[in-house]
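# step 3/5: fold
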Amino acid sequence: MTKRIYLEGKALELMALVTEQEVQLYQGKRSLKSPTSDTIERIHYARTILLQNISDPPTIAELAKQVQVNEYTLKCCFSRPSI
């Protein structure tokens, strides 16, 4: 039960971050940079790690450290459908 609440909280956190980013883009306060090919490879690796550990996923901080990108980049790239 606790794990489910934790995961739902993380999902809500990611949704809030994506929503905030969209608002900033809409208001012209931020531009969206295209990730490098190296970053894209790291994001795909992060996805693989999550799929392999679906029953006990790492935290965002742990995952970012494993794939060697910062947490912000990880969150932003996961929210972009084109990657």
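# step 4/5: annotate
Helices lie at 2-26, 37-52, 60-67, 71-79.
# step 5/5: archive (pending)
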